[in-house]
Write a structure and sequence with these properties.
One of its GO terms (cellular component) is external side of plasma membrane. This protein is of the alpha+beta class and 282 residues long. The protein folds into 3 domains: 1-35; 41-156, Immunoglobulin-like; 162-258, Immunoglobulins (Immunoglobulin-like). Helix content is 16%, strand content 41%. The two termini are 26 Å apart.
Length: 282
């Protein structure tokens, strides 16, 4: 007769094998779906996108057959938005089908019709509004391709600052459109944090104007960096002060960096998760 210890050990081994088998079955199913070759690929190169309020934004969606680059003649494309009735945009039989379009997107959404045959199903959304924020789904049906991908659109307001020299010699930066409210900091050419003061002037609909003053003395022919950032966008502006105090010119350029991270989970990440789970079971 088996001892209690043998029974418990055998039960643990059985559970571990059962859990391992179940996880391997799910992994194999996922790998089969992820690498299934008969349906081609529908994907977004920017699954998380930040749109600038009142400007246009492109929601990226591409499709490709497994046979490589080819032209598609019979393509159906449907864009939907989660938790919203009707379609954002629908394309069938080489023409837009907008009978079921939600009124929120009337005269604001369109595809790049000349590029559809080359595998481009991206959506151009004009005059972005705060209520446009959400998850959009692009579904494509074409010869040798069938699938859906998603794009998470987040909406912010951002603009590059302009620089001027004030009467007291300080450097002043002003950006006319930001939302949500950002933080502002100034750096020297060597990367040292400098003293500054910033005001936020509310415009309509909570959009604000940013006015910031570099309080530390400004040196001739030195470069200064103004950072304006919120949870979605960072604006890095480099200003170089040149010339005499009276005849001063400022040259500046701005780079925008977006905190739009992909929400895709790769099969490699899934395999790593399975390994961690199996390690915990053992």
């Amino acid at each position: 007769m088996a001892s209690i210890g043998q029974i418990i050990f055998g039960s643990k081994a059985f559970c571990s094998k059962k859990a391992f088998g179940l996880l391997m079955y799910k992994l194999n199913a996922c790998v089969h779906v992820c690498f299934q070759v008969s349906q081609g690929i529908v994907e977004s190169r920017s699954p998380s996108t930040v749109g600038n309020l009142a400007e246009d934004v492109v929601l990226d969606c591409r499709f490709l057959s497994n046979s490589g680059n080819e032209q598609f003649n019979d393509v159906s494309i449907t864009w939907l938005k989660d938790a919203l009735s009707g379609v954002v945009y629908e394309y069938k039989s080489k023409a837009a089908q907008l009978q079921g379009q939600n009124t929120q997107f009337q005269n604001r959404a369109q595809l790049f019709s000349d590029a559809i045959s080359m595998g481009n199903a991206s959506l151009l959304l004009r005059n972005v509004k705060l209520e446009d924020e959400g998850v959009y789904r692009c579904s494509v049906n074409a010869p040798k391709v069938s699938g859906t991908t998603s794009v998470n659109l987040r909406v912010a307001a951002f603009s590059a600052p302009t620089f001027t020299r004030q009467a007291d010699g300080s450097l002043f930066a002003q950006a006319n459109k930001w939302f949500p409210q950002p933080g502002v900091s100034w750096l020297s050419q060597s990367g040292q944090l400098l003293n500054s003061s910033t005001q936020f002037i509310n415009n309509t609909a909570g959009i604000m104007r940013v006015a910031s003053v570099l309080e530390d003395p400004v040196k001739e022919d030195d470069a200064y960096t103004c950072l304006i950032q919120n949870s979605l966008v960072k604006a890095i502006s480099e200003a170089t002060v040149t010339g005499k105090i009276v005849m001063l010119t400022e040259k500046s350029r701005t780079y925008f960096i977006f905190s739009a991270a992909s929400t895709k989970v790769s099969s490699l990440q899934l395999l790593f998760t399975v390994i961690l789970v199996l390690s915990a079971i053992q």
